[in-house]
Write a structure and sequence with these properties.
Layout (H helix, E strand, L loop, with lengths): L7 E4 L14 E6 L3 E2 L12 E8 L2 E9 L12 E2 L2 E7 L5 E8 L8 E5 L2 E5 L2 E2 L2 E2 L3 E6 L4 E6 L10 E5 L2 E5 L2 E2 L2 E2 L3 E5 L8 E3 L10 E7 L2 E7 L2 E4 L2 E5 L2 E6 L4 E7 L8 E4 L5 E4 L5 H15 L3 H16 L7 E5 L7 E5 L11 E3 L2 E5 L2 E3 L2 E2 L2 E10 L1
Antiparallel strand pairs: 1-2, 2-35, 3-35, 4-5, 5-6, 5-7, 7-8, 9-10, 10-13, 11-12, 13-14, 15-16, 16-19, 17-18, 19-20, 21-22, 22-25, 23-24, 25-26, 27-28, 28-29, 29-30, 31-32, 32-35, 33-34
Amino acid sequence: MRLLYLPAILMILQIPVGSCRSSAKMVEIEWKEPVTLPATEDGNSIGIAGPVTGIIDDLLLVGGGANFPQGFPWEGGSKQFQQQLHLYQLTEKGDCTFWKTGSIPELTSYGCTYSTSKGLVLAGGEGGKGISSAVWLLGKTDTGITLKALPALPIPLTNAAGTAIQDQLFIAGGETTTGMNNRFFSFSLNDPSKGWLELPSLPYAVSHAVLQARSRNGRQELILAGGRARNGTDTSKLYDETWVYSLDHKTWKKLGKLPYALAAAQVIRLEDESILLLGGDDGSTFTQVEKLLGAIQHEKDSTKRIALIHQKNELQRNHPGFRKEILVLPADESQWQFAGSVPFDAPVTTTLIRWNNYLLLPSGEVRAGIRSPYIQIGQLNRNR
């Protein structure tokens, strides 16, 4: 655990990375001292992956999610799904002050969350009962949080990609009870009686992708990037592709490529309609673990099987962490540009949130089985 966290400045570096171009614009993020999530009963704060997180008015919500409170996976610990919801008061200066903690049994992990004018929407996810199709609208009162059921998703979904244009919600891909999914849906909070409407399918079935809405030349479009797909008994396929969906024409078009294949990254839209992507998993360790799990499953010799399990455990125990780079996709270009890196262990399976001129990055997974106990806070400036 870090005893001291000094503010750090992240600026775009004009250095190409792979097929990534250098940037002509500057992005500056000053990362403040992070906020630590409340401790558990044993006095430790261990964080959560796949949290329910977003903003209602000036209130930040961080809860649900999954972790390993009784021991890491390689120690025999099992994943547990949490029901606590932590509430934080936000200020215009980027202060994040703890208010209270409640418990909401309906919370899931790895669902899509949307911060809207009507409240925080949670769609899908998973928990102790499996993958969920439930959709909830969380609202704010003077004493805490309210919960209202919305029309359910057409199918149960977890690890899907979501974004919103005002109160129009979109959810793409993900995993279902039967496998990978390429279906694409939208839902209007202003006309909920229509339920979730199906849109043209994704170019391929994918989970852990990012989806971000933006406006270009006065027209709304959605950017889909990265992700991975389980491949039966083989290792998962990781994607480096970027696609754009036109709301006017209702069509998908390939836009370009990421500099490397990437899954479970975080994304936001900048004021000039550029898209900022942070972190992600390039699969370098994930794929090795998958191969070992397959070998363990098929190995009949008990001695060799024990050796493979030990090898897998050591690989997870010594996980190097995930990508720390920040990439930017300018509004009028098809190539991602390198924008430096973060000065901390970058989490995956969480949500990057924009609050005025600040970025909020709550908890998430920083290594296999290890969660971040922090809410990272960065002040964002973009100079043209």
